[in-house]
Amino acid sequence: MSNSFIYDIFRKWLFLTNIAVFPTCFVINAPFGRFTPSKDSWFLVDGIKSWILMELVSPAMFIYAYTTSPLSYYDPPLPSWTSPQSILASLFLIHYTNRAILSPLRTPSRSKSHLIVPLSGVLFNTMNGFLMGSYLSSPYARMFLNPTYTFQRPSFYIGLGLWFVGFVGNIVHDEILLDIRRNAKSKGKGKAGQDDKNKKADASASEKEHYAIPYGLLYKYVSYPNYFCEWTEWFGFALAAAPFPIELSLSAVVKLILSLLSVNGLKSIAFGSPKGFAPSLTPPWVFFFAEVLAMLPRAYNGHIWYKRRFGDRYPKERKAVVPFLL
C-alpha cells in the first residue's frame, strides 16, 4: 500500500466520518468531562493522563510525516527555517505543545474519561498528524507555499493573524475555566449560589468535578468561546497553508449541493476512488471542518447543560459557540 494511497484514504474518511457522526453527536455525548458516566466502570480512565497520551500522537505523526515527506518521489531536504512550510509546521507544533502538555499539566483536576474517548482520539490524531505533515512536505505544498509568491499573498498574513488571535484566545478562555477549578480546589469544595461580584463565577458543586458559570471576555457572548477561538485558529491556519477548497461562485456551490443531495452523487462520494475524492480538499481544510463538525454538537449540548444546571442564574443572552448567531 503506497503512502499516497494511505494519504488519500485518511483525507477522505477523516472528512466523511465526521460528517456521518455529526447528527449523532447531538444525541450521544462523548463520555468525558461533564458528560462522563456517573457510575464507576472498568472503562473509565484518568482524564489528564489519557488526554496527554492521545494528544501526543498528533505531533509525533506530524514530525514523522513532515521529515520523511511520504508524498515525494525522492528524499527532499527539509525546508529552511524561514520558509512558509517551516512557519506553519512551527504553529502546528506550538498548538500541540500547549494542547498535549502545557494545558493538561496546568489543569488542577479533570473528570475521568471513558476509554472510547482516548481510543478515538488516537485514531483521529494518527490520521490528522500524518495528513498535515504529509501535506506540508509535499511537492504540491512546496509549489503553493513558494516563498516568492506566499510572502506577497495577503491571505497568508491574514491567516497567520487569525491563527495567533485564535491560539491566544483559546488559552485565555481555558484559563478562566481552570481558575474556577483552582479556586474550588483551594477552598476544598465550591459552594453553590455564590453572589460575590468580585468572583468570576457562580459556583456549583458536582459529584465528579466542580463546575460554575464562567465570566469574562467572550464568555459574555457564548458558553464555549474556547471552541470558537480554536475554530478561528485553524481557519486561519488553513487560509495561510492551502487554497480554498471550493470555487467561491454561486454555480459551484449549487453544483456541490446538488451532488450531495443525489443518490448517484452520494454513491460516487462513498465508493469512488479516494484519490478522486474532492481533490482540492487539502488536509488543513479537512482538519478545520472536522473540528467544527466534532465540536459544534458538544458546544450546543454543553450550552443546554449549563442552562439546565444553573437555571435563571445563567445569562440568557449567551449563545452556544458563535457570538450573536449560534
From TrEMBL:
Q: How does it sit in the membrane?
A: Multi-pass membrane protein
Cellular-component GO terms for this entry:
membrane
The entry's family comment says: Belongs to the steroid 5-alpha reductase family.
Report any one BP term from Gene Ontology: lipid metabolic process
Keywords per UniProt: Membrane, Transmembrane, Transmembrane helix
- Record domain 3-oxo-5-alpha-steroid 4-dehydrogenase C-terminal: where: 115-186, 206-243, 283-326
The entry's protein name is 3-oxo-5-alpha-steroid 4-dehydrogenase C-terminal domain-containing protein
Transmembrane annotation, as ranges? 12-30, 86-102, 114-136, 156-178
Taken from the record, one Pfam family name reads: Steroid_dh
What is the native source organism of this protein?
A: Amanita muscaria (strain Koide BX008)
Single GO molecular function: oxidoreductase activity, acting on the CH-CH group of donors
List the subcellular locations: Membrane
- Where is it predominantly found? membrane
